[in-house]
Amino acid sequence: MLSLLTFVARHGKLGLIAGLVAGIALPGLAGVLRYWIPEMVAFLLFLTAFRIGPRDTIESLDALRRTATAALVLQLALPLIFLALLALIGLPLSPLALAVALMLAAPSVTGAANFAILLGHDPAPALRLLILGTAVLPLTCIPVFALLPQFGALASVLQAAARLLAVILAAAALGFALRHWGFPTLTDRGRRATDGLTVIALAIIVIGLMSAIRPAFERDPFELAFWLAAAFGVNFGMQLLAFAVLRARGRKDAVPTAIVAGNRNFALFFVALPPETTDPLLIFLGCYQFPMYLTPTLLRRLYDPR
C-alpha cells in the first residue's frame, strides 16, 4: 500500500488532472460526491496538518505576524481596491465582477498547502494563511459586504465562516495530535505516502465540485468558455501578480502565498446570496477548479525551486 501511495505522489499532477477529467466525464458521480464535500475537505485538512506537523506550522511569532499581514492584504485590501476601481471607472457590478469580488474577499482554499507540496515548496505558510485567514474572515468581510448590496443577511455568512473555522481547527488539531504523539519523526517514505493519499483526496473532491460543468456545457458551451477564460485569468493573474511582488521583496514564502492569492474558498459566501444571483456563479465555481487543479502543472516552471 505504501508503495502504491508513493507512486501516486510521484505522479501527483497527473492525479489532479484525472480528477478534472472524471468531474466532466462522470456527472452522475459528481452529483453524488457533491454532498460529501464537507467531510472530504475535513479529511484533506487532517492529512495536511499531519504531513506538516505543529512545529513547522507555527514556526515563530514573526511568521504569524507576516501571515496576519498577508491575510489582511489578500482578504480586505484587494477586494476594497477592486470595488473602488469599479466605482471609479463607472462599471456595474456584473456577475463576473461579483464573482471576482467574492474571490478576493475569501480565505485560502483547503488544498493550497497541498499544491505547494506538489511544487516542491514549504506548505506551512499556506496552511497558516488558511487557518488565520478563515479566523479573521468575520471581520474582513464586513467592509466588503457593505459595498455589495446583493448580499443577504450578514449573520448567515458569519455563521458559515464560524462553522468552517471550527472544521479547520478540529481537523488540524487531530492531524497535529496524531503527528506529535504517533509519528513525531515522519520518514521520507511516510511523507511521500501521505502526499499520495492527499492527491487521491484532492482528485475525489474536485469531482464533486465540478457538478455544474457538464450541464453548463450541454446548455451553452460558449457561455461556459467565457467563464472558463475568466476563471483562468483571475486565478493565474492573482498568482502571477502576488509572486512577482513577493519575489521582488525577497520573501521566502513567495510561492505558497502566491498560490493562496489565486486560489480562494469563495464558495463560502454563497450562503448569503439569493438563488437568482448564485446561478452564474456556480458555473464560475466549477470553472475555477481548472486553474486551481492545474496550478502545479501549468505554473511549475514559474514556481520551480531549482
Automatic annotation (TrEMBL):
Source organism of this protein record: Ruegeria sediminis
Entry annotated with the keyword Membrane: yes
Coiled-coil spans in chain: none
Keywords annotated in UniProt: Membrane, Transmembrane, Transmembrane helix
InterPro entries with a match to the protein in the record: Na+/solute_symporter_sf
Bilayer-crossing regions: 12-29, 72-91, 97-119, 126-148, 160-181, 193-213, 225-246
Name under which the protein is recorded: Bile acid:sodium symporter family protein
Keyword Membrane applies: yes
